[in-house]
Amino acid sequence: NAGVTQTPKFRVLKTGQSMTLLCAQDMNHEYMYWYRQDPGMGLRLIHYSVGEGTTAKGEVPDGYNVSRLKKQNFLLGLESAAPSQTSVYFCASSSTLPGTEAFFGQGTRLTVV
Amino acid sequence: AQKVTQAQTEISVVEKEDVTLDCVYETRDTTYYLFWYKQPPSGELVFLIRRNSFDEQNEISGRYSWNFQKSTSSFNFTITASQVVDSAVYFCALSEAIGANNLFFGTGTRLTVIP
Question: What pLDDT score does A37 carry?
Answer without folding.
Answer: 98
